Amino acid sequence: MLTTPPLAPKTLAALKELGIRTREDLQKIGAVRAFLLLKASGLTVTKSTLWQLDALVSGVDVRHISEERKTELGKALKTILLLPFSLRKTIWKPLCGWR
Fold first, then answer.
1. CB-based contact 45:38 (threshold 8 Å)
2. DSSP state of 7
3. Dihedral angle at the C-alpha atoms of 11, 17, 23, 29, nearest 10 degrees?
4. pLDDT category, 85, cuts 50, 70, 90?
5. Residue 61 carries which DSSP code?
6. Is 52:61 a contact under the CB 8 Å cutoff?
7. What is the pLDDT of residue 99?
8. With contact defined as beta carbons under 8 Å apart, do 20 and 26 qualify?
9. What is the pLDDT of residues 24-77, one digit of tens each?
10. Neighbours of 56 (CB within 10 A)
């Protein structure tokens, strides 16, 4: 079960609304996709939220996420956001039930 801390209560509630209730659920979709789903749901999210999600996926304390890993996460996020919609849809389809 995901808890607060490290996640803020609003983030935790939004994840639950999205059907992400456990670390295993989060690991299945990954930190970047979970971050984008939170953002798409209307929640205000920051890079810190992305790092917290990644720490949970990895099973480490957020303070142990290296600067290199933070940069990798930022690049992965940018890559997805820069994709044409048709390609982004293939990323979201398994997560959102799109047909």
1. yes
2. S
3. -100
4. low
5. -
6. no
7. 34
8. yes
9. 999 998 999 899 999 988 999 999 999 999 999 999 999 999 999 999 999 888
10. 21
Tell me if residue 1 falls in helix, strand or coil. Answer: coil
Residues whose CB is less than 8 angstroms from the CB of residue 6 and which lie 6 or more positions away in sequence, other chains included: 52, 55, 56, 61, 62
Confidence of residue 5 (pLDDT cuts 50, 70, 90): confident
Tell me the CA end-to-end span of the chain in Å, nearest whole number.
Answer: 29
The residue written with tokens 């303070």 in the block is 63
In terms of C-beta density within 10 A (0-12 exposed, 13-18 middle, 19 or more buried), how is residue 62 classed? middle
Please name the residue ranges forming H helices in 1-99. Answer: 9-17, 23-29, 31-40, 47-58, 67-82, 85-96
